[in-house]
Amino acid sequence: MLRTARGQVLARRTSNRMRVTVRLFAAHREAAGTSTYIAELPAGATVSDAYVSVCGSYPAIARSAASAAFALNRAHVRGDELLNEGDEIAILPPVAGG
Amino acid sequence: MSPRFLLTGDPLDERAVAAQLESDGAGAVVTFVGRVRAHSRGRDVTKLEYEAYPEMAEKVFAQIADEIRARGGIIDVAIHHRVGTLGVGEVSVVIAVSAAHRSPAFDACHYAIDRLKQIAPIWKKEHSPDGAVWVEDRP
């Protein structure tokens, strides 16, 4: 019975949390010292929540650029977009191609 | 035949990019070639370091081409961008547009490079004798 109870608890925890991948670039990547960050977030979290999570782990990111845009699964989105398990978010510092 | 939309660490060949757009109906092929300048904002530039979000960049190039086609009068579009470390004079971007007539081809090529600088997930670090900085100025 204990095993069953523990199993139920684990299943509930899994369904209430999700893991997303956050990609970092340019000044953000250098400030964090990594190009990829795995964020564990509650269900219902948004792109902005992932950004806050990354800044919490790497405060230098919040200081390194005044503004950032976001992409979710390789398309531009606003910060209020909802996340799902396994999503790939990118934090995009001001771009400078060409 | 090279792809229409490409992000690559290899040197770009502007003639090859334009050649793939040649067709019997294309009376005009306009090509824009972006090169690394020796000076920027009062500083000497020794090299530029380009970084991209590769999985997204080529999708954005295709999106820009779709926007151009929606404006009308255009036959085809190709956009190639280089990443990695580039010296002065090296080619960082090539955009080619084909159309029946010159005017829409010029307009579309101008639009494409402006739009690329605005939305493509590409960054550059400018190296000079004073140090290196990530460029953040808006086009």
Structure summary:
The complex is a heterodimer of chains A (98) and B (139). Chain A has 98 residues and is α+β, with helices and mostly antiparallel strands.
Name the features:
heterodimer; A: 98 residues; alpha+beta; 40% helix; disordered N terminus; B: 139 residues; 30% helix; elongated
Overview of the molecule:
The complex is a heterodimer of chains A (98) and B (139). Chain A has 98 residues and is α+β, with helices and mostly antiparallel strands. Chain A has one domain: Beta-grasp domain (Ubiquitin-like (UB roll), Roll), CATH 3.10.20.30. Chain A has four helices and five strands; from the N terminus they run H-E-H-E-H-H-E-E-E. Chain A has helices spanning 2-16, 26-32, 47-57, 59-64; strands at 17-24, 36-42, 69-72, 75-77, 88-92. A five-stranded mixed sheet of chain A has the order 2-1-5-3-4. Chain A is globular, with a radius of gyration of 16 Å. The model of chain A is unreliable at 1-12 (pLDDT under 50). With 139 residues, chain B is of the alpha+beta class. Chain B has a single domain, classed as Aldehyde Oxidoreductase, domain 3. Helices cover 30% and strands 38% of the residues of chain B. Chain B has three helices and ten strands, in the order βαββββαβββαββ. In chain B, the strands form three sheets. Chain B has a four-stranded mixed sheet. In chain B, strands 7-5-9-10 form a four-stranded antiparallel sheet. In chain B, strands 3-4 form a two-stranded antiparallel ribbon. In chain B, helix 2 runs antiparallel to helix 3. Chain B is elongated and about 50 Å long. The N and C termini of chain B lie far apart (32 Å). The model of chain B has no long low-confidence stretch (mean pLDDT 95). Chain A binds chain B through residues 23, 25-27, 29, 65, 71, 74-76, 90, 92-98, and chain B through 34, 50-53, 55-56, 59, 81, 92-93, 113, 116-125, 134-139.
